[in-house]
Amino acid sequence: xxxxxxxxxxxxxxxxxxxxxxxxxxxxxxxxxxxxxxxxxxxxxxxxxxxxxxxxxxxxxxxxxxxxxxxxxxxxxxxxxxxxxxxxxxxxxxxxxxxxxxxxxxxxxxxxxxxxxxxxxxxxxxxxxxxxxxxxxxxxxxxxxxxxxxxxxxxxxxxxxxxxxxxxxxxxxxxxxxxxxxxxxxxxxxxxxxxxxxxxxxxxxxxxxxxxxxxxxxxxxxxxxxxxxxxxxxxxxxxxxxxxxxxxxxxxxxxxxxxxxx
Length: 262
Prior knowledge:
mainly alpha; 2 strands; 71% helix
């Protein structure tokens, strides 16, 4: 049943944005090593975070990717354990997938662990919870979005660049791009939570308001939230321009993400 619960969430669909970015950045820098294990590891870790994020103690969501959330399809205990197992699996995949490149493997494990830990992903989730039903500033909201959403997207880009053998300035530009794209992605998500239907997003509509969360929509209004998403998207494109490689696909991806409706 544990494996069934893991597959329920992992195979539910979604954009697969993070592994796509890992593969795209590896290709951008001309990698001779497959980025697929890293992409799979990131998707496992991302799915774990969604399972836990949906729990009653967190966002208490009923739908994810158009299907019942893991704790609804099974139960809370099974959902918690499915998330735990996917977290462990992500590092197993990295260790096995790059065992012939031990230095790269070690660096990738460190990248993913740092992004998933108390300073980044989990810390951002904690900050988000602590600020429910509170009036917060745009600066605090940027911090939450950068850590809770931006960190894993940035690390997806950095890991791909690392696999591709990028120099330090390439790693830095890839990471900067990922943080900005992640923040833009979250603002668009917040706009869709306010404007789109459950059928379009595959998630429970209006969840942010229900949970008392401040977003750029509630903080600035819908029009200025669109402006903020556009500003972040433009900054992401400018960071991408610092990378010397094949970035046409990545530029197209940025445009598609900024205009998505789900």
